[in-house]
Amino acid sequence: MRGAVIHAPGDIRFETLDDPKILKPTDAIIRTAVTCVCGSDLWPYRGAEPTDAAHPMGHEYVGFVEEVGSEVTSVKPGQFVVGSFATSDNTCANCRNGFQSSCLNREFMSTCQADHVRIPNAQGTLVATDDIPDERFWPGLLAVSDVLGTGWWAAEAAQVKPGSTAVVVGDGAVGLCAVIAAKELGAERIIAMSRHESRRKLALEFGATDIVAERGDEGVARIKDLTGGIGADSVLECVGTAESMRQALHSARPGGNVGFVGVPHEVAIDGQELFFSQAGLHGGPAPVRRYLPDLIDLVLSGRIDPGKVFDLTLPLDQVAEGYQAMDERRAIKALLRP
Amino acid sequence: MRGAVIHAPGDIRFETLDDPKILKPTDAIIRTAVTCVCGSDLWPYRGAEPTDAAHPMGHEYVGFVEEVGSEVTSVKPGQFVVGSFATSDNTCANCRNGFQSSCLNREFMSTCQADHVRIPNAQGTLVATDDIPDERFWPGLLAVSDVLGTGWWAAEAAQVKPGSTAVVVGDGAVGLCAVIAAKELGAERIIAMSRHESRRKLALEFGATDIVAERGDEGVARIKDLTGGIGADSVLECVGTAESMRQALHSARPGGNVGFVGVPHEVAIDGQELFFSQAGLHGGPAPVRRYLPDLIDLVLSGRIDPGKVFDLTLPLDQVAEGYQAMDERRAIKALLRP
User: Across the A/B interface, how many CB contacts are shorter than 8 Å?
Assistant: First the structure.
């Protein structure tokens, strides 16, 4: 098979690799329908996370089941399946609590920018669609497997409620999907923080009611202006830098909540500052598996189209260009077709 | 009038001071029924907070209204009233959201270890009882005005639900009151972390089902043992040190919640650690005013008796001994009678 391998920051190669095999009776092998490049893939690409040795990349996928291990009965060869970047057995205590992304047997996916992928914990991780969906739905279902699920968790963790005001920090694919989630959960006012024309446009299309271009203290001041001086009920932090986290915390009202889903990089939160802000803070890897059935339905029913975050489509063998386009912010998110 | 003044760490004096006066039409003057020493008073007493100039002390009080400003209509002279350490107008946007401790006109109380006290924002802050309560209820009502309200907020912020498992970190008066709150909110299992015999006994009397004496990593390991390996649904952090906060965060299960009410001192929370713990975190000064009507009823009906946290009663003029006894952990909490 062939897939993407990172050798060093900025150095993504498309290479021939060993075909994936069933290693455990709980595994499945899928043939990738579509995959993509994630904003979080840019951390090692930009050298913000170390690359000690060359390794495959990618954790987003939808595809066709080719083979299943002896203990996998929930999906079968030929079916179209959607999964999550965090695999889960869906039976352990954390899974039963709805936090499958902290499954006691969790394995994070990391080899999905390839034409074939081994899925650990396949029984608990994969959800098959009733029929093979029309190709026009594939990008939306691919978004479900990570960026929409993550935006949804941001909205849930920020306790978005009907009639509330939500601020979305970050205009990447996750932030844009967080706008969809905030709208679906009933937010009356959705303020998207963005200064990029194409992203602002998509945020408005997804349901944002206001756009704030300012950042940092100026951005916070604008949010306060728009929220009667006290801040927003819910803030969805979809970046993960110290600046974005500070902006998010300062944008929430006392008693409001910040959902943070950007993996924090060099972020330290001062306990006393958090205390006196009286804002709640909840984040982590999104429990996508819990949301899959509902989000798949929302996409296949045509109610939402998170697939619009893919504004660049490339053949899988041009994966390196996908990284570069996203790194240079020429693309929001690059879809890859094997 | 006479009241307590701190001159330097360890130096509390009972002095003659100017009688309090109505300064604003929203003020009231009360004659103190009972007051007390708070765990947070020990921060400056121990030098962990600076004392640049001598100043009065105390923020907990119940008493009799003596005089009200021209805009105060909700209480009248002669009534017995309960308030909060954070005064609030009870009309601003934050108050309407139920976060009166972040009232836009908030003034923190700081002169209550005295026989008379000026209460700013009296209209929004003070709640009068229907009749003058029997003296045996005064300690309980005094606890309502701070430590019980704060423990209640810890339980609410930690999202204690019927049937859930709650851990209480801290066996001071707030921690012990947090046990009461967790029980009233329906926790099925309440694990109190304590190594002091008298406090453990009171925790059990208040509703704790388990006691854990270990601290730090050992304490966390014991909590994991008691919670099927994953941690507790809710953790109520009632101390405010870096160690207690770390212990609290590590004791919560993925998707669980930490309510933190000990004012954090030199606490920095690592963003990535919080992210992967998947625990929620919410704290701040307790919105006691929101709880007052219900908590007063719980005390006067005899359903709960948070007044038991006072295991030392002194005449007000011996306030310095109250500080010393609490500092040396000879007393959980010292009640002062003018």
Answer: 138
Specify the residue for token string 């330290």. A268
* Cα–chain center distance at B115: 21
B122 shares a domain with B158: no
* Chain A from 195 to 234: CB within 8 A of any B CB: 228-230
Distance from CA of A102 to the nearest CA of B (A): 7
**Gap between the Cα atoms of B196 and B202, Å rounded:** 10
ipTM above 0.85, yes or no: yes
Judge: B228–A254 Cβ closer than 8 Å, yes or no: no
Q: Least CB-CB distance to A275: which of B93, B242, B263?
A: B263
Question: Does B313 share its domain with B226?
Answer: no
Q: Same structural domain for residues A223 and A160?
A: yes
Shared domain for B138 and B205, answered yes or no, is: no
Judging by DSSP bridges, how do beta strands A61-68 and A80-82 pair with one another? antiparallel
Distance from the Cα of A316 to chain B's closest Cα (Å) equals 31
Regarding whether A142 and A10 lie in a shared domain, the answer is yes
Number of domains in chain A: 2
CA distances from A203 to A183, A206, A287, B44 (A): 11, 5, 23, 50
Q: Could you tell me the residue range of the domain that residue B106 belongs to? A: 2-147+287-337
The overall average pLDDT reported for chain B is 97
CATH number at residue B238: 3.40.50.720
8 Å CB contact of A280 and B157: yes
Same domain, B165 and B143: no
Residue A205 pLDDT: 98
- Window 128-167 of B, Cβ < 8 Å to A: 157
Domain of residue B20, CATH code = 3.90.180.10
- DSSP letters, B60-87, are -EEEEEEEE-TT--SS-TT-EEE--SB-
Stretches in chain B below the pLDDT threshold 50 = none
